[in-house]
Sequence to fold (256 residues):
Amino acid sequence: MMNNVDLSNHNGKVVTITSGNGGVGKTFLTASFATGLAKLGKKVIILTTDINNHILAMLLKVEWGERLTVYTTYDNKKLIVNEKTQGLNYWLKNGKGLLVKVRENLDCIPLENFPNINKTLEKLLYKLKYYYDYIIIDNSFDEKRSPVIFKYSEKIIIASSGGVFCTKGINRILKEVDISKISNIIFNKYLDWKISRENYKKITKMLKGTPINLPDRIKELSIIRILVDDSKSIWESNDQRIKETQGIIMNILKRL
Ligand SMILES: Nc1ncnc2c1ncn2[C@@H]1O[C@H](COP(=O)(O)OP(=O)(O)OP(=O)(O)O)[C@@H](O)[C@H]1O
Ligand SMILES: [Mg+2]
Fold:
């Protein structure tokens, strides 16, 4: 399907979710944005630089075996990811590979080995931009964050929890990337503590007069943990407790 792409219409947008600290919800946000856009009828693909492929576990049914993790894809295929999988590294080398269907309108390229993001990323993204409206990258937290990914992203979203190292982490990324690409700084897993309130204030002040959006804070909620554990997206629940989060994410999606 993806051979011999000519063409003029490579309009897909690359949106990268990143953070200056680990565990702040990049993968959760990636899953929420990607499923939200797919529900709105956009064609979406997720790439990940996380060797643990948490995004797959977040969106697909998983059987955690002692040695093997088996996922069930949206089109009911069994999937095991190992070095032989034709994942992101294979795509980068060969310009083709495995697409895992995770929802209607939503595919994912898993990561089979430590990411070797190189110059061929540009070529791969160019190809994907023809088939997909959005390419969402779950950029695993890592000190050697890949400048190549930032270079070829149209938009960058920074996630933060508001915790102690929050401003340090955000400032580090602001130094690494082209600031005009940053569309949002999102406080997720937010707990209403003094330090997080102060950090939110600091960032609000810092962003004043810039085009960077600081959406409402996404709280740390037990319902989110429950949905994640059940491999459900935030759009697949009618629970009252998730309504506020849905509203915040939908507002962000409208600006992507
Ligand atoms: N708003 C939230 N409320 C409650 N739990 C959350 C929320 N956002 C994320 N989580 C949970 O927090 C954990 C970490 O989230 P996630 O894996 O998305 O973070 P991450 O930034 O991708 O982590 P890593 O740096 O390891 O890749 C997950 O178990 C997820 O279910
Ligand atoms: Mg992650």
